[in-house]
Amino acid sequence: MAQSQFSKVDEYGFERPEDFDYLAYESFMSQYLPILAKRSKKWTSLMPSGSVFRRKRTLKAYIRKGIPNEFREKVWMRVSGAQEARSKFGADFYKQLVAAAHDPSVVETIRTDLPRTFPENIFFNATDEHQNMLYRVLIAYAHHNKRIGYCQGMNYVAGLILLVTKNEDSTFWLLKALVENVLPDYYSPTMDGLLTDIDAISELVRLKYPEVSRHVTELGLPWPVITTKWFVCIYCEVLPTE
């Protein structure tokens, strides 16, 4: 059998499943790569030289089709509000947070969670570099937003952003934008936003997949038990990375 050109590890450092069909994937990518190349050209023409996107309807349509990897950091920073926050607080703000004196109990909690974050990922388990970057991002955010501090699940969110952007500073600002703007009250003490979304998904399942809803009810499993980790980790452990 011909050997596939694709590695056993994807570009983000995750090992492919044992039953991964390399030949089927290679066949798919041979047809999909020209499409990605066309999208990349379109994104190049759309990207602003400044900080504001024009043609917002076009931007929305492009995002729904997927942002090419080489543009993700820049697009995420701009559309999430992370770039605006960075400009407001200053370019050195993250470094100042990292250098500050930190709560020992928060330090201990974060350090305990670091080895549990994507333990199978080659970037996180090969050397200490990614774990150290992730630690600095998490402790900086906990110090910056003491009302929320550090919550389990943030390590996966920040870890995935770090794997995509490969930029520690951007990861901090994107985590801040996600926690405070995109997913408000997911990680707050009351978790009101999280509970609202859990109620929404349970109702959607009841309406769209009544047999699944009945099965869950018969098992006696509350929806928060099933879905809380999905939401707080933004599904990064249960869905493919892309």
From TrEMBL:
<dbReference type="InterPro" id="IPR035969">
    <property type="entry name" value="Rab-GAP_TBC_sf"/>
</dbReference>
<keyword id="KW-0343">GTPase activation</keyword>
<dbReference type="GO" id="GO:0031267">
    <property type="term" value="F:small GTPase binding"/>
</dbReference>
<comment type="function">
    <text>May act as a GTPase-activating protein for Rab family protein(s).</text>
</comment>
<protein>
    <submittedName>
        <fullName>Gh regulated tbc protein-1</fullName>
    </submittedName>
</protein>
<dbReference type="GO" id="GO:0005096">
    <property type="term" value="F:GTPase activator activity"/>
</dbReference>
<dbReference type="Pfam" id="PF00566">
    <property type="entry name" value="RabGAP-TBC"/>
</dbReference>
<feature type="domain" description="Rab-GAP TBC">
    <location>
        <begin position="66"/>
        <end position="242"/>
    </location>
</feature>
<dbReference type="InterPro" id="IPR000195">
    <property type="entry name" value="Rab-GAP-TBC_dom"/>
</dbReference>
<dbReference type="InterPro" id="IPR050302">
    <property type="entry name" value="Rab_GAP_TBC_domain"/>
</dbReference>
